[in-house]
Design goal:
single chain, 370 residues, alpha/beta, 5-stranded parallel sheet, 8 helices, elongated, Amino_oxidase
Length: 370
């Protein structure tokens, strides 16, 4: 590969980290992102009327430094602030309608220590993006087609926000997107091999069927009652709740929904959030009514994340890992993203490891004649 221009599709953690590693090695690259923001499924947001209360994660929240060395090393290298997930006090278990929740004190160290970012996971995204030269990331640039000619040249076609279409040449492409998004939203000419296409379609996108709600308070009042904020519920609508308070001052509780995407759509956001507040009041008492605001993100309704297949609830943990070889596309397109990592698929660690693997493949190509 002489004077390679590597095109990375997707400016989530994996795509940005791949760009950072390529840039470090002096390999030219561009990152094309269809959203109007960087981060992909990382989304840290705040109450616009009360930014003083902090930022809250509507996507991934934690990492586990004792098991996940890649992210732990990167956090250290980028000098990012972190703090331990709050777990002191009793958990609540809500098993039946019309019965008060049961209170349990978990044995110390019963859970692996999970760690959060000061300022949300967006602080990791921003720090990685800050290692890139200006202008490398192009937002609102939706790749719709990738073509390979007989001479082996790659051309990408992308729709821009202004309605224009751009053609981009590449010596190789890193697809740092959920596999199903690749399969459903990008046209390949010639077509991808059938076994590769089948593999992409059959890999559920992590979080795509999920939704998260965060209730923000002036202070974490539940701690005063000796509660950790951790809840397991068979009643719902949230089936798992955790303390989402920032490291200083304000309080927050976040939860994952037990109800399927289809039911969430039928109910609508207003009804769902009313049910969430009702549940928090049931669990934590009348103080839970005094929300400063409630944030909600239904990933199944995010066109850049989910496809129709993702609406069906997952029955088992998905099997993730590298897709099969690409036939004519071998050495031309390289897959990255958390779903392509077999050990840490679904985690930030998986996204970072997949970026490292993709860059290794690019550098191997660079050092070999095609």
């Amino acid at each position: 590969m002489n004077n390679p221009i590597v095109i990375i599709v997707g400016a989530g953690l994996s795509g940005l980290r791949a760009a950072s590693l390529l840039t470090e090695q002096g390999i030219k690259c561009r990152v094309l992102e269809s959203r109007d923001r960087i981060g992909g499924r990382v989304l840290s947001t705040q109450n616009p009327n009360r930014p003083d209360l902090g930022k809250f994660d509507l996507g991934p929240t934690w990492f586990w430094p004792q098991h996940e060395r890649t992210i732990a090393n990167l956090v250290k290298e980028l000098n990012l602030g972190t703090f331990d997930q709050y777990t002191k006090g009793a958990m609540l278990s809500e098993r039946y309608h019309n019965e008060p929740p049961e209170r349990y004190v978990l044995p110390e160290n019963s859970d692996a220590r999970s760690v959060r970012f000061i300022g949300g996971v967006q602080s990791l995204i921003d720090a990685v993006a800050n290692t890139l030269p200006p202008g490398i990331v192009e937002l609102e640039t939706r790749v719709t087609a990738i073509r390979l000619d007989k001479a082996g040249a790659i051309t990408l076609e992308a729709d821009l926000a202004n309605g224009k279409r751009e053609k981009v040449s590449a010596s190789a492409v890193i697809l740092a997107l959920p596999p199903r998004i690749v399969a459903r939203h990008i046209e390949f000419s010639p077509s991808l091999p059938t076994d590769l296409m089948t593999d992409l379609v059959n890999k559920p996108t992590w979080m795509a069927g999920q939704a998260k709600a965060v209730a923000i308070y002036d202070r974490p009042f539940w701690r005063e009652s000796g509660l950790s904020g951790f809840v397991s519920s068979w009643v719902g609508p949230l089936q798992e709740i955790h303390d989402a308070s920032p490291d200083t001052g304000s309080g927050a509780l976040f939860g994952f929904f037990g109800m399927p995407a289809k039911i969430r759509r039928e109910l609508g956001e207003d009804k769902i959030l009313k049910l969430v507040i009702d549940q928090l009041v049931r669990l934590f008492g009348p103080s839970a009514k005094n929300v400063s605001s409630i944030l909600y993100k239904d990933w199944s309704r995010d066109f850049e994340t989910a496809v129709e297949e993702d609406i069906n609830p997952l029955r088992d943990f998905p099997i993730y890992g590298k897709p099969p070889r690409g036939g004519l596309w071998e050495k031309k397109i390289i897959f990255a993203g958390t779903e392509t990592n077999s050990q840490y698929g679904g985690h930030l660690e998986g996204a970072l490891q997949s970026a490292e693997q993709a860059v290794l493949e690019i550098t191997n190509l660079k050092n070999k004649p095609l």
